[in-house]
Amino acid sequence: MLACVPAGAQGVRYTISPVNADQVLDKAQIQADVEYLCNPSLGGRATATEGGRAAASWLEGNFRVLGLQPLSGAWLHGFSTPDGLARNVMGLIPGSAFPSRYIILMAHYDNLGTLNGTFYPGADSNASGVAALLQLARMVTHMNTCRKIYRHGLIVVALDAKEKNQAGAVELWRQISSGKLLDPVSGQPVTPSQISLVVNLDQLGATLAPLTKDHPRYLMMLSEASTGRQGTLQNVNKLAGFGLELAFDYYGSKDFTRLFYRRICDQRVFLENGIPAVMFTSGITLLNNKPADVPSSLDYDVLKDRTRLIFYWLDSVL
């Protein structure tokens, strides 16, 4: 419990708030995670490659260290693709409500790989989202040690095969809709009716395509206005003094908002089945899906602040 008390405040009473989790948010670790996932030894993390398998094993190790509980008895969940075996990595941070309700927090870890001898590191797409995912899981776990009570369980998922028509997200939905995904605490299936919200993190680290010129501190949240808790994000951004410029569409374009929210990203299958979903992104830049999408192209100070803001929002909806 002492770790929950802000530095210099030990021995005094304190309020459990998102500020407590700031102690475990680590910019250096965010950068280290991005650099690991972009290491040439992983070959760009294409689905069903040795590099993709290494990334999945690394994520499983992180989930173990964070204390996430395996769903259906495993962290790694394999499924078939035309290219071979893919792997989603999943873990649960249990909530306090019974019967259970869940929020799914997910980010895809696969990328294009190495094509015709050209290496695609995939730093922004989507090592940045995975690094944020791990930090958010660490922060929620830390809040549990601070005795914070969350009504929802948090299902944390690192998805494979996004680049294969979102096959990893489709497989996750198949497990849930068929009653194959089991809660490790209750032993009962996680059902569609128990999913309150899906939160997808996809490309969070760049500042090369700001909403407003020369204003790199920004974040886009794509959601339905009625289900995404957009007002909550605005409130925590203002009250906690983040000062990020927020947008709730994709650069003001209805067509591109529809494309990224409803068609080409991992929340698609959940939206098609009536599950509310939110996507957080910093948008596509000229480096995405290029060999130049390297760790040094990201802004880790802004990525840390985006992660922190998303946590404050998530803390309020959990």
Structural summary, described in words:
- By secondary structure, the chain is α/β, with parallel strands linked by helices.
- It is 33% helix and 18% strand.
- The strands form 2 sheets. The chain has an 8-stranded mixed sheet with strand order 1-2-6-3-7-10-8-9, with helices on both faces. A two-stranded antiparallel ribbon has the order 4-5.
- Strand 8, helix 5 (230-239) and strand 9 (245-247) form a beta-alpha-beta unit.
- The mean pLDDT is 94.
Tags for this model:
318 residues; alpha/beta; Aminopeptidase; 8-stranded mixed beta sheet; two-stranded antiparallel ribbon; globular
**Average pLDDT rating:** 94
User: Looking at the structure, what is the overall shape?
Assistant: globular
How much helical structure, as a percent, in the residues?
25-40%
Unreliable parts: none
What is the count of helical runs? 8
Report on the biggest sheet: 8 strands, mixed
Class by SSE composition: alpha/beta
Second-tier CATH architecture: 3-Layer(aba) Sandwich
How many domains, as an integer?
1
Compute the number of strand runs.
10
H-E order: HHEEEEEHEHEEHEHHEH
Side-by-side strand order of the widest sheet: 1-2-6-3-7-10-8-9
State the distance separating the first and last CA atoms: 21 Å
- As a whole number of angstroms, the C-alpha radius of gyration is 18 Å
